């Protein structure tokens, strides 16, 4: 029998790297979706001889790049058993993607939206496929207003990041509803506050806060545990539409539970992607 195949974005550092390595140890073939081929090659070398590890280049902030990656993956694979939307970024200053979308929202939500919806047929072809969306407790900082997602009039990095993480949960819940009849599960996970390279290049308040707390934060291995659980544990089979913290359902904001907001975000995302074709 062939191995199960897991696709993971952002597998070259932090919790994504640990998740990739641990899934390889469990016998999953990997699709490494990343911007840097050189860094992905290092991951391939680390797991060489255990399983297959395929690299697909992709800039999640660029809709065209994501669509190209989807087509490349479809040309190589006929099924995906696990899709882990792990990659995420926070930007100190307001920036825009090649498509004119605020860069945090483009990278953390629109890219994963295009990738996931583009690969649904491959997920349907697997037996009980799983989708894992790495979110964050930062979603509690989000003041949800769909009009502020593409071009926030006031830019505060943690607030904007929190909105993107709320979008991750809403998207994850909507996927769970839409894909339930196909036996596909979708869960959002909070890795905890991890001492990784997240926000390491910043010089603002958020970066300073992260550096100050670093000695007290989770290790990357600890941070990856819930993603690995949701992706591979037999105890997670059939669990869907949840927000998992420390490998069990956690508390979310009221907005994150709002099905209407999830539907609205899905439709908004579809229109946004169509407008940039």
TrEMBL record:
GO terms for molecular function: oxidoreductase activity. The keyword Nucleus does not apply. It holds the Pfam family adh_short. Signal peptide: none annotated. InterPro entries: NAD(P)-bd_dom_sf, SDR_fam. It comes from Dyadobacter psychrotolerans. Keywords: Oxidoreductase. This is SDR family oxidoreductase. Belongs to the short-chain dehydrogenases/reductases (SDR) family. It comes from the Bacteria. The keyword Phosphoprotein does not apply.
């Amino acid at each position: 029998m062939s191995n199960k195949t897991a696709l993971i974005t952002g597998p070259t550092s932090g919790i994504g790297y640990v998740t990739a390595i641990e899934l390889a140890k469990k016998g999953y073939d990997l699709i490494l979706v990343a911007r840097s081929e050189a860094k992905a090659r290092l991951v391939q070398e680390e797991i060489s001889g255990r399983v297959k590890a395929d690299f697909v280049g992709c800039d999640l902030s660029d809709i065209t790049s994501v669509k190209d990656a989807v087509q490349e993956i479809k040309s190589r694979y006929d099924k995906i058993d696990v899709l882990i939307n792990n990659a995420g970024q926070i930007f100190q200053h307001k920036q825009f993607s090649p498509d004119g979308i605020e860069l945090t929202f483009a990278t953390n939500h629109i890219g994963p939206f295009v990738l996931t919806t583009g690969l649904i047929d491959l997920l349907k072809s697997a037996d009980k496929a799983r989708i894992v969306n790495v979110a964050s407790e930062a979603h509690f900082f989000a003041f949800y207003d769909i009009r502020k997602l593409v071009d926030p009039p006031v830019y505060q990095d943690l607030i904007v990041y929190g909105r993107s993480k709320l979008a991750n949960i809403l998207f994850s819940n909507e996927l769970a509803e839409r894909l339930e009849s196909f036996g596909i599960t979708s869960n959002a996970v909070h890795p905890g506050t991890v001492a990784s390279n997240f926000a390491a290049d910043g010089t603002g308040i958020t970066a300073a806060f992260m550096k100050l707390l670093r000695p007290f934060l989770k290790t990357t291995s600890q941070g990856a545990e819930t993603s690995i659980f949701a992706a591979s544990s037999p105890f997670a089979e059939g669990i869907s539409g949840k927000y998992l913290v420390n490998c069990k359902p956690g508390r979310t904001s009221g907005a994150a539970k709002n099905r209407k907001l999830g539907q609205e975000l899905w439709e908004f995302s579809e229109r946004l992607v169509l407008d940039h074709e």
